[in-house]
Structures are given as C-alpha cells and as structure tokens.
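W.,

You were right to be curious about this one. When I first looked at the sequence I had no strong expectations either way, so I just let the prediction run and decided to look at it fresh. Below is the sequence, 189 residues in total, followed by the output.
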Amino acid sequence: MKMKNGSMMSTQERMETAFLYAVFICYILFLCKLLFLSRVSLVDLFNSQRTVDRSINLIPFHSIKDYIFSNSATIKKFAFANVVGNIVIFIPLGTYLSLFKNNKRTTNLLFIVIISLFIEIIQGLLGIGASDIDDIILNGLGGFVGVLGYTFLMFILRDKKKVRTAITILSAIGLPVLLYLLFAVRLRL
C-alpha cells in the first residue's frame, strides 16, 4: 500500500484516487475536443489548404458588452450559451485542482487563468475559434466557482476524506455525460 500523509492508504482510497484521475483525464480530453476540435477536425487542423479565420479580442468585457446590447435574438442565445459555457466548463478544473493539489486558492486560480490564456493563444495561432480576453475572464470565473465549491464542501463536511468521497460520487454521476460528449457527440460550434 502507498503511504499518504504518514498513514496507509486503504483499498477504497486507492480506487477512489484511480477513479478520480480517470475522470479527470476524460475531462481534459473533453476540454481538448471542445476547445480545439469542435470547429475543425484533427485532419483539417493541419491541412495547408484550410482557410484560417482569426479573431482576437484584447479588450476586457468587449464581447460580453456586444452580446448584452445586441438586438438580435440569435446573438443573445449564442451569447448566453457562450458566457455560461465558458464558466461551466472550467468549474471541474477548479474543483479537481483543489482536490489534487493542496495549494492556496489564489495559486489554483492563477493556474486556471494561465491554462485559459494558453488555450486562447493556441486557438489564435491555429486559427480555430476566437481568441478573446473575455473567455479567459469567464474561464477564470468558472475555475473560481469550482475552487469555492470545494471550499464550501470542506466547510460543510469538515473532513477531506468526506469531501473526496462527495466529489467521487459527483464524478460518477457526471462521468456518463462526459463520456457521451467525448465519444458520441460530434461538436461543431
């Protein structure tokens, strides 16, 4: 058995750990699919004949403001999905970071923002999607919600093992949806 904080890790804890890491890997694969391959296939991504359309916004809240003040119902629906989606997809990252790494909340949040920045740079360089500072802000907000969710569970349950079990249960509930989105749905946003 592995040692954890000076004590033996039980079989249940090892199984929970393996399960959580497996779900986390599926989540990372889903993020890659959603953020890099939802608009262009892997084959087309490196096709030299592909038309590349780059869009970059470096003005904070510019896109969000455009969404809010648009008169188009279609744009408002897209805006809502985009804003909420950018927040929701990073909530698990904040939660899993808090679970796997016992860093301070600010360190985890900084890591989430850096990951989001890296994603936006890659999208800009590869010409997929739009590189937008607002996405970084919204992703950071989502990660912050995940970190706060973990903190809230710690406050309520007052035991890391109970929190870990709660997150394992939530991960087990979310896993079928994640696998469906990862393997069964062809995302073209």
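Here's what jumped out at me. DSSP finds eight helices and four strands in the chain. And, maybe more interesting for your project: Residues 11-36 form the longest helix (26 residues).

Coffee later to discuss?

I.
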